[in-house]
């Protein structure tokens, strides 16, 4: 949807720019440049662009990802069984970035150099390459950080009196540090992939379900953002946090028009190639969400087992 909106806006801008241009000065020799043509152009470029680390550091110390054209490196072929990898080195200055291909196995003369497509979600595989990867460990779904949605998810999970819609001043300050409030807010969060739950979302839920400034102050934000941190704000808080995320997953699943079994039945009936691709895409998204729910449910069971002896 974002790409389509961009292309339509770009088409409108180009038409306005070329409206009064003489035929002899027309940059495209008088050819009509519409959203469809621009879409093909974008596809041609994006399929050979590498997503490298940019120079600008975003909140939390990580780099943004900038698509870059590397014509010589793109002479390598793509494969999920790669024998070479791309290494990016940067000395801190904007001009001195070295990108090189390094062999991971013994490469003989005349052997093809095979690069992995990259640690991409199925969104990029679908848009840029025209296929989806089953059980893609880097696949994610995007959600908007919405206080009302989180309140509803927490209540559905049985959490008493959630305060996502009315955070205390100190909680709001921490949300600003996570870029989930304030002037620099970025409300797009993800579920799935290598993190399972994006760190900013995980930290926000932990903080807002705690309500105890004294306890939260004992932990830094990086600890609160990590799923590997073992119940940093206590077992009860962690259980409530995981149940809230599980409820978010249930809500996300409810927005799909079909269930996985229905999708599989449609595929067996036989559909067009385009329809088959889109159905496989949504099957993988739903499967990924279910895997996240299974993971968090397992964690809740382990935490509940820890909590029971202390309660007795």
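^ structure tokens above, recovered residues below v
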């Amino acid at each position: 949807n974002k790409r389509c909106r961009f292309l339509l806006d770009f088409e409108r801008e180009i038409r306005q720019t070329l409206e009064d241009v003489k035929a002899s000065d027309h940059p495209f020799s008088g050819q009509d440049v519409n959203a469809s043509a621009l879409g093909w152009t974008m596809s041609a470029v994006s399929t050979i662009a590498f997503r490298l680390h940019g120079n600008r550091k975003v909140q939390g110390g990580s780099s943004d990802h900038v698509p870059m054209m590397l014509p010589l490196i793109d002479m390598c072929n793509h494969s999920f069984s790669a024998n070479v990898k791309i290494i990016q080195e940067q000395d801190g200055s904007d001009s001195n970035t070295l990108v090189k291909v390094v062999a991971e196995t013994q490469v003989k003369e005349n052997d093809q150099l095979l690069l992995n497509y990259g640690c991409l979600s199925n969104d990029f595989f679908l848009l840029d390459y025209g296929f989806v990867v089953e059980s893609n460990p880097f696949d994610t779904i995007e959600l908007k950080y919405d206080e009302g949605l989180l309140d509803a998810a927490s209540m559905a999970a049985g959490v008493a009196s959630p305060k996502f819609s009315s955070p205390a001043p100190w909680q709001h300050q921490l949300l600003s540090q996570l870029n989930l409030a304030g002037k620099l807010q970025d409300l797009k969060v993800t579920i799935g992939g290598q993190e399972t739950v994006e760190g900013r979302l995980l930290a926000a839920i932990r903080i807002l379900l705690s309500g105890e400034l004294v306890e939260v102050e004992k932990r830094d934000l990086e600890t609160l953002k990590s799923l590997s941190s073992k119940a940093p704000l206590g077992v009860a808080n962690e259980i409530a946090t995981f149940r809230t995320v599980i409820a978010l997953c249930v809500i996300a699943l409810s927005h799909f028009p079909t269930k996985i079994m229905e999708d599989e039945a449609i595929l067996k009936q036989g559909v067009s190639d385009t329809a088959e691709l889109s159905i496989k895409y949504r099957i993988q998204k739903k499967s990924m969400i279910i895997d996240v729910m299974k993971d968090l449910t397992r964690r809740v069971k382990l935490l509940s087992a820890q909590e029971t002896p202390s309660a007795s």
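Residues 56-62 have pLDDT under 50 and may be disordered.
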